[in-house]
Amino acid sequence: MNPNYKELYEKFKILKEENKRLKDEAELLRKILSKEESKTNSSTDFTLVKETSLDQNDNIITMNSTSKEKIKLFMSLFKGRDDVCAKRWRNKPG
Q1: 46/87 Cα distance (integer angstroms)
Q2: Which of 11, 69, 70, 85 is 20 to 30 A from 57 via CA?
Q3: How far lies 92's CA from each of 62, 63, 89, in Å?
Q4: What's the pTM?
């Protein structure tokens, strides 16, 4: 038998054992994680927040809309973001 082959085969066996150990550890961690997620999901009360969409607005904003209506639309898009402002407004047809 070639000495390089024997050395490589021994390294292969070691790597194969480590691979099996890591797969077993990963499976164990997946099981622990799924148990933790089920505990979190069952004990947490989620509150759903309903956001208003532009489709629900009664008024449709067009080029002919007043500045006040356009500003109202703009402010609704950036609600809660005082640090954000647009550089320009671009109205595309369609």
Answers
A1: 37
A2: 85
A3: 10, 10, 10
A4: 0.39
